[in-house]
Specification:
Strand content: 15-25%
Pfam families: Response_reg
Distance between the termini: 25 Å
Shape: globular
Number of domains: 1
Modified residues (4-aspartylphosphate): 53
Order of helices and strands: EHEHEHEHEH
CATH architecture: 3-Layer(aba) Sandwich
Keywords: Phosphoprotein
GO biological process, one term: phosphorelay signal transduction system
Radius of gyration: 14 Å
Organism: Aquitalea aquatica
Number of helices: 5
CATH superfamily: Response regulator
CATH topology: Rossmann fold
Strand order of the largest sheet: 2-1-3-4-5
Helix content: 40-55%
């Protein structure tokens, strides 16, 4: 995880502080507490991974933000963080462009494993981006 950039989009200050504390030891971490903050900084920070909460306490939720991010050609791996694990939630996570999910509250071990896996996918995507038109990879 060294030198990777992780963006945490989480409105709960305690959750954000804990994740930031855990991850700052081995990655560059940026925190956004609101949808506006995410939209203003996502492409400036250019994260490798986005840890996205679903319920952000405003008009826009994590699904809306990831849909917007993907429509702007955002390439980061997106891991949703949710206290819900229903078929509907999982379907929405993948439908909007999410790559994975973690149940809240995440353990450090699960968080690190999911991030490591996402970084591997990110590295593979850099070598051979997956697109409907590119069948040679």
């Amino acid at each position: 995880m060294n030198n990777s950039k992780i963006m945490i989009v989480e409105d709960d200050a305690i959750s954000a502080i804990l994740m930031r504390k855990w991850l700052a030891k081995s990655a560059h971490v940026h925190h956004c507490a609101t949808p506006d903050a995410f939209q203003q900084t996502a492409f400036e920070v250019n994260p490798d991974i986005i840890l996205m909460d679903i319920n952000l306490g405003g008009d826009e939720d994590g699904f809306d933000l990831v849909t917007w991010y993907r429509s702007q050609q955002g390439k980061a791996q997106v891991i949703f963080i949710s206290s819900y694990e229903t078929a509907e939630i999982l379907s929405r996570i993948y439908a909007c462009g999410g790559n994975d999910y973690i149940l809240k509250p995440p353990s450090l071990e699960v968080l690190e494993n999911k991030i490591r896996h996402a970084l591997e996918w990110r590295a593979m995507d850099a070598i051979c981006p997956i697109s409907p038109r590119d069948e040679n990879c």
